[in-house]
Specification:
EC 3.2.1.8, Jelly Rolls, 2 helices, ConA-like_dom_sf
């Protein structure tokens, strides 16, 4: 009987260090903000220790996004990431630094890797040139969403995309995003940000399947 108490404590610790989400949820976990959203289907999001998370999705989910990071975000953070991005070239998915600002309402992406669809092809968008950061070239495109879901309900708003060329690819990935470089370049093109809401290093899937296990710092 003397061994029951330490065994119970160990079991509670193991369970508490990992949490699987099946429904939309935001919050804080191990010092990081997290966000998980899906519009349908069986996608799951697992909160691991520290800045680590895992996402698992199939074609039963139309669209989902999840990640860990900070709330509020800022314009000068350097974000490091590493882990496994388990998709193939036919899967519609992004691996990106992702966030929102208000006043103006902006949804932004720094896309480090993607599958079958590049956001540089968004319809009705405008190409905003390219710049170099961290030894890579990023192509920039501004897109417009009309009457679309946002962090303040259904709205019309601009999206900013910085897309890494060449992309990181699939499988084991690692790198860093110096967000200040992107903010400065966007501003030089007349693409301002507003007051930061959340800022996460996210995995997103659209009508696809895959698995990601990513650590953010």
């Amino acid at each position: 009987m003397q061994f029951l108490i330490p065994v119970v404590i160990l079991c509670v610790s193991l369970v508490d260090s990992q949490k699987v989400l099946y429904n939309n949820e935001i919050g804080f976990n191990n010092g990081f903000y997290y966000a998980f959203w899906k519009d349908s289907g069986s996608a799951t999001f697992t909160l691991e220790s520290g800045g680590r998370y895992a996402g698992n999705w199939t074609t039963s989910t139309n669209n989902w996004v999840g990640g860990k990071g900070w709330n509020p975000g800022n314009s000068w953070r350097t974000v490091n990431y590493s882990g496994y991005y388990g998709i193939n070239e036919y899967a519609n998915s992004y691996l990106s630094l992702y966030g929102w600002t208000t006043n103006p309402l902006i949804e932004y992406y720094v896309v480090e890797s993607y599958g079958s669809y590049s956001p540089l092809n968004c319809p009705g968008g405008t190409d905003e040139g390219s710049f170099t950061s961290g030894g890579a070239t990023y192509q920039v495109r501004k897109c417009r969403r009309t009457n679309a879901p946002s962090i303040i309900g259904t709205q019309s708003f601009d999206q900013y995309f910085s897309v890494r060329t060449p992309k990181k690819g699939f499988g084991q990935v690692s790198g860093s995003v110096n967000f200040a470089d992107h903010v400065q370049y966007w501003a030089s093109k007349g693409l301002p940000l507003g007051t930061h809401a959340h800022q996460i290093f996210a995995t997103e899937g659209y009508q696809s399947s895959g698995f990601a296990d990513i650590t953010v710092s």
